Amino acid sequence: MVTMREIARAAGVSQAAVSYAYNRPAKLSETQRRHILDTAARLGYAGPNVLGAGLRAGKVGAIGVMVMDSLEYAFTDPSTRALLEGIAQSRKFDDHALTLVPLPRSPVAADDGLPDQAALQGIVDGMIVHCLPDDHRSLRTLQSRGLPMVVVDAPLLPGVPRVCVQDRLAAQDQMRHLLDLGHRKTGVLAERLSPDGRRGLAGPGRRAESTERVVRERVAGYLDVAAGPVSVMEAGGFDRAAGTAAAHELLDTAPLTAIAATSDTMAIAALEAARARGLRVPDDLSVIGFDDAPDAERWSLTTMRQPMREKGRIVAEMLHDLLNGRTPAETVELPVDLVVRETTAPPAG
Length: 349
Fold this sequence. Notes:
Layout: H1 4-11, H2 15-23, H3 30-43, H4 50-56, E1 62-67, H5 71-76, H6 78-89, E2 97-102, E3 126-130, H7 137-144, E4 149-152, E5 162-164, H8 167-181, E6 186-190, E7 200-201, H9 204-208, H10 213-225, E8 231-234, H11 240-253, E9 258-261, H12 264-276, E10 286-291, H13 294-298, E11 302-305, H14 308-323, E12 331-333, E13 337-339
Parallel strand pairs: 1-2, 1-3, 3-4, 4-5, 5-12, 6-8, 6-9, 9-10, 10-11
Antiparallel strand pairs: 7-8, 11-13
Helix pairs in contact: 1-2, 1-3, 2-3, 6-14, 8-10, 11-12
């Protein structure tokens, strides 16, 4: 294998000059650099070992994005896809690999048996954590290893930079929109309050023990301003199939004129359940979602818009700052907006 020393000898330059040609080109004139590269190509030299150089510098050239569900969820959930697009559009990590780290397993209290995830074994330089439960064991692993880390939405970790929206206040605005239209028989459709597979009606005890900060805050916001008792139905998952089954259960609990959903996926699931029952939206049932994911406009869904791509861009900038010795803002809160479309209207009669 051709070495830098052999190239230096053949080109009549120092070995340092050969290294500069690949790693610090500004140190050489363009003519000298081109002469070195041409000599290297003639000798069959493919260039320095980037991985080896990165390891010597304590870097591996990869960042991780940790999501609390299956790998399929990262690609099929509209909001998560928008977040990943924002990370890519930041252009901060064009020269890095992106490692997706799904964590579908439930958190445990014990420290033994930590998940054997590659990204927790030192093959990423930093981690973006997206919506993990408050007590997930992987967080202890990340923090104990001192890995640079930033959070999107949840959990809330002291000293760890985070980008988020004010979920509780936004949820209050969701419910106020229904109240202003005259709805008083309203139900809530939520993905999950804890990653334990439980589904069904979620009473005060279940809500109090919730470890999913985002859903917990949104449900609390609905109940803060709701007029009268509100049934909260937990789907036990993030996908539309789980949401549709839960929406049917919610509609079976009592006559409702409106449903507030903690995500657009859950809201669209409610629309599908209403269609299956022959209910007209919004004449018989109003539905409002959260996120304004791409599917929301296709369904003419009234929703709370949050800037997921902007979240991705900002969190990428935060992690880039950390990896380059700069201190980002501890918390960045982004605004939300009510987008009124065709799935909400005053109740009939």
